[in-house]
Amino acid sequence: MLRRALLVLLWSGLAAALPAKSPAQPSLSPAAQAGRAIYFANCVGCHGLNVQGGLAPNIRRAGQGSLASFKRAVLQGKGLDGRPLALTMPRYTRGFRPHLGRQPTDTELRNLQSFLKTVK
Question: How many structural domains are present in the chain?
Fold first, then answer.
């Protein structure tokens, strides 16, 4: 548990140091733009600038599933098949940065999924 917390803190710090813009993104809808902001504040440190993976796997496919399965992955750490994701995957039950303290809304989750759908 302590190891997981240290990894998350380490990569959160690295993510904050990364550029705010990802390489060559097509024009994004407002929902995808909001999702991009969530991704860059919370996910980029492990899943990479282009969602290609790094410390954590490529999650482009996560944008294609249902909201319910995506929500289960983000909040409970369970994959599409119901199996637990790696322990290093944060459970965002307390929210996304920068608005920690409450569970992410369905709109925030949909926005994040919308962004993932745009990544090629």
Answer: 1
